[in-house]
Amino acid sequence: MSELQAQVRAFGGDPERRGSVSGSVHRAWVNIKSTITGMDEAAVLAECERGEEVARKAYEDALSKDLPADVRSMIERQYQGVRQHQDRVRQVRGAS
Fold first, then answer.
1. Tell me: the pLDDT tens digits for 26-70?
2. Burial of 38 by CB count in 10 Å (0-12 exposed, 13-18 middle, 19+ buried)?
3. DSSP of 36-56, one letter per residue?
4. Is the pTM of this model over 0.70?
5. Which is it for the CA torsion 76, 77, 83, 89, positive or negative?
6. What is the number of H-type helices and E-type strands within the chain?
7. Please, what is the Cα angle at 75 between 47 and 20, to 5 degrees?
């Protein structure tokens, strides 16, 4: 994330320090759901999977834009990481 924030600053932008509003809401929801469900692993994993889906869509949206080659390369690399995390969460969720 700091790599992406540095790029935003390099282009004169002011990156959000704590993530998006939807990301903050999602983290709060995971905390609430964990408390309500007694830390039920399947429920927490389902919420993690949803969070990864939000991140994946944000990266796909970014990649649909006209970006400088170095920025596109960085975003593509991070996007692949998000996809790997999403796949891993699905695997763990399926195993539980």
1. 666 666 666 666 667 777 788 788 888 888 888 999 999 999 999
2. exposed
3. HTTS-HHHHHHHHHHHHHHHH
4. no
5. negative
6. 4, 0
7. 45
